[in-house]
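Objective 1b: paired records.
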Amino acid sequence: MTHPGGTDHPAGAGDVDDVTGSGGTGPGASGAGGAATGAGAGGPTGAGSGGADDPLVIRDASTGAAVPDAFQRLWNPHRMAYIDAGRDGDGRGHKDDCPFCAAPAMSDEDALIVARGEHAYVLLNLYPYNNGHLLVCPYRHVPLYDEATADETREMTELTQTAMRVLRQVSHCDGFNIGMNQGEVAGAGIAAHLHQHIVPRWQSDANFFPIIARTKSMSQMLGDTRRLVAEAWPAQH
């Protein structure tokens, strides 16, 4: 690289000519603010690095405030209830903060519960993937499937089978997605309390909405779905 004075310097020799600090005006490796090691606010190692004169920070010339960047923000403050509930080690959370522990104490209508067993119960997902998206939960606050008792797992299985039959009857679905997300790393929304998903599927339920618009089209209100499933639930599951 040739400088204005005609002196040749090999590439990468350390001169910084184009980025100047607030206190320097001349080129060169030792300029007071014009070089990489200068003491001015503009140098990467200078005393003012990252401050108001940092050349790497884009700022509005009139106000000095940082201008918007290229990122969009999706604000989800309601998720803090789940995040805070999972701070007590491995996402186990507290019973007092757990919606699946609170639901059984509420009315079926308010909690969206469709059936109650001895060790487990069934309720609608408040954020369903499809109409009729059910959750099967043990009453006991336990996070993992291998920590559930034999009675709990047995009844969860029985409730799942009954839920399939009822959903097939009231919604005429063509299939199901059934499964559990174990732990936050596996995608569990409420990792502290074990729950199994039952998602009814139809041949025509896949469309461009979730992919293009990140939106699910729901054809029935949750209260109406709960009533239909609860009314069709057999007295003895």
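Objective 1b, second protein:
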Amino acid sequence: MSATSGIPRRRRALVAVLSTLGLAAAAAAAVTLPASASAPTPPSGWTQVFLDDFTGAAGTGVNTSNWQYSTGTSYPGGPANWGTGEVETMTSSTNNVSLDGNGNLRITPLRDAAGNWTSGRIETKRTDFQPPAGGKLKVEARLQMPNVTGTAAEGYWPAFWALGGPYRGNYQNWPGVGELDIMENVQGLNKVWATMHCGSNPGGPCNETTGIGNSVACPGATCQAGFHTYSMEWDRSVTPEAIRFYVDGVNYHTVTANQVDATTWANATNHGYFVILNVAMGGAFPDAFGGGLDGATEPGHPMVVDYVQVLQAAGGGGGTATPPPSGSRDAYGTIQAESYDSQSGTATETTTDTGGGQDIGSLANGDWALYKGVTFGSTAATQFRARVASGAAGGVSGLVEVRLDSRTATPVGSFSVANTGGWQTWKTIPANISSVTGTHDVYLTFTSGQPADFVNVNWLGFGH
């Protein structure tokens, strides 16, 4: 949860521009579990390295062998108001943080007669959660967001997230040490946000303080009305390394190592993480969605957490979210241009763009590249973007086009590009496209009124 200055914690105003993804299919398959369900048995190939099922007597605090309380309005010497502008004082009181006697943790924000807010924030004592070399890490919780909506929910900001271990005791090295927001919500909206924070603030390679994020409506019951399972899978078994975010097993956001430069990725991932649960009140993120706390905000609505578990899979281990097979791609991830299934007229070369790797170049009128099995899902993609560079001579330009299932089909969208300052001077260009759902073979085609090469392409992707 970050927001201002140089701090940690979630995000952001700018995420407002990210569209909600529909998950009707997942909703149809959702299974209702009791509030006190136990953590599931790890899948084959996975080992459980941390679990708290929050069993214990009603009205007692958390297991302090697993958790520590963060209290007050900041870390010692850290940014005020936790760096986000939130207004509550965090406490270790069982009024704010307690077990309910039915296998759940309740973090409850309260307001006193003078209008002062208190709430709770707990963090794992362990700071070493990371995948083994060539393996995977999964951090998961089953929880119900505060069951409050509308004006009564103004200012509510529940979160389940993780911070890079080097932050603990330093409190000035955010966002470089990394932050992984697995579940965030504000204002009682039926939406969950997932975000990775990294790099430098403001701006930088990770667009801080917004970060690299996405949001989606909860499948089945709304986020507030029912329990959902929120998870993050950090996968070092694939190249590029990937961090995937899920709600009820549906992958709705992925960040890969090649989206930022190698140093930024290493600074954010070459260490362990600790896990945090909290309910903030007010701050930059709620403010971005219509305002924060006011007299209509109702205290006393808890975030209810059934369990938190952390799993690891050794190199080559299995899991529920393995890399897609060849010929199956996530439209909303980053599709590397050189990963084509077929092409005509292209040349592959080493790029100096952020993240390194290769691009496809020598692209001119009539050239094309094919990417098979691109999955768009049931909520229509309406945007396309590509990372391009051009050293074309003056007066030379052309179109980068997207066609589906046939390279002679009418383009669903395109953008024009001319000289960007050089063949390795990169810029990301967005374009609107006609609504696309389902799974398609995607052709990237290149059209120009001149015969000369006019563009290089590093990667492409789609959005809502």
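Residues 398 and 449 are 7 Å apart (CA to CA). Residues 3-32, 317-327 have pLDDT under 50 and may be disordered.
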